[in-house]
Amino acid sequence: MVAEDVAPPETEAPAEQAQTHGGKPTVACKVYAPFKVYFEGEAYSVSAVNATGPFDILPKHHNFLCMLVPCNLKIESPDGEKIIKIHRALMHVKANRIVVFMDV
Hints:
There is one protein chain. By secondary structure, the protein is mainly beta. The protein contains no helices and 10 strands. The protein has one domain: ATP Synthase, domain 1 (Sandwich). Strands 1, 2, 3, 6, 9 and 10 form a 6-stranded mixed β-sheet that branches. A 4-stranded antiparallel β-sheet has the order 5-4-7-8, with no helix packed on it. Keywords: ATP synthesis, CF(1).
């Protein structure tokens, strides 16, 4: 068997690798409460406010966990901007995925 005839094994992309939409990197995002999903999909960025002030989460962000204070959660997605009013929420960022648990 000749080396050129051997195809390399297929490998899956690591979970933390950013997806792209139109060449722009995205991060998986889900915002939900116990009985309602407010947003689920890809996002270019997510902006919110915690006790230390406003911040943004972008694709490939380091692991992050915080409580959100009352604010407008802003999600920039391929479908446009979405604003969700937050009263109390927990934000968890890990492996290029943002999860916001509302009403906790």
